[in-house]
Amino acid sequence: MKKLLSILGSVGIMTLTGMAAVAYQNTNRTNKPIAKVLTDEENFQFIKDKGPKIEKLLHKVSEGSGETNPNFTESEHDILSILAKVYEIYKEAKGIKTFSQALEVLNKKGNGSSQDKQESRRELSNFLKGLVGSYNSKEKEIESFFQKYNVS
110 pLDDT exceeds 70? Predict the structure, then answer.
């Protein structure tokens, strides 16, 4: 009888431990932040929103480099590279309001086949995702760069 009670006690403890571990694991999964995936339209609007501010910054930087050539660090060159890409897209898309309109303009420049339309949509979408991702990953450095040149 004593052996039966000790066996049942051990099985009970293992069962409770297993249930607690599973319950703890499930609560940890739900608490992890889920990164928001932006749509193509949101990425395009992000570029359109950031464009004027970047335009001011690039104008100030190019203005200051007339007489004295500013020495930028490597990280500042990376930031300027990202900002220049965003500005190029913004400059091309000033008169365009939506992502689908941008695709139409892009397809008019190409030969217009349906396969090319799908490919250009995929390429533009991937380019914008990468560009917005790069911008967001260096957002703090970019904001300090804006503050350095007094651009708001």
Answer: no
